[in-house]
Amino acid sequence: MLENCRTAKERWGGVHQLIDRWLKERQELLVHYCDLSDTARDTASENLGKKLERLCQILVDYTSAGHFEIYEQLIQEAREFDDGGIELAGRIYPRISETTEVVLDFNERIDGKRPAESEMDDLMAELSRLGEALETRFELEDFLIEHLHNVHADKVPSSA
């Protein structure tokens, strides 16, 4: 029985650490997004291309971590607790995938290019669309974390 408690603690404690790291990456993404949005308004900025490239890099890393690490762990946890989480994830995941398409489209359109001054209005529109998609995505991700992971916190042995 003690071994089962350790195993659960290690398994779900590891998920908690993974989520914490991912949420820190989200914060970094938001900082770069806001910084880029401010820079994009200044069409004379020499750093715009570098900032676009960095944002795209963080966007792809964050999105990939969500799909290939976090969501898989949340689904595994939902399976093990078998309390309706799989069905919930099945309803939420397609909506998250829609935001993934916006992220990938933005990344593909930018593709390391610094837009010409004549393209700045288009860039601002794309940044706005990206921002809206990210806001939706973060809300959906937070919902999944709350309902597939945090809801089980009292069922997993604490570190005390």
Automatic annotation (TrEMBL):
User: Where, if anywhere, are coiled coils annotated?
Assistant: none
Q: Which GO terms describe its biological process?
A: regulation of DNA-templated transcription
Keyword hit for Transcription:
yes
Per the UniProt entry, the signal peptide is: none
Q: Does the keyword Ribosomal protein apply?
A: no
Which InterPro entries does UniProt cross-reference here? Rsd/AlgQ_sf (IPR038309), Sigma70_reg_Rsd_AlgQ (IPR007448)
Which Pfam families does the record associate with it? Rsd_AlgQ
> Which keywords, in A-to-Z order, does the entry hold?
Transcription, Transcription regulation
- Family to which this protein belongs: Belongs to the Rsd/AlgQ family.
NCBIfam families per record: PRK11718.1
Its protein name is: Regulator of sigma D
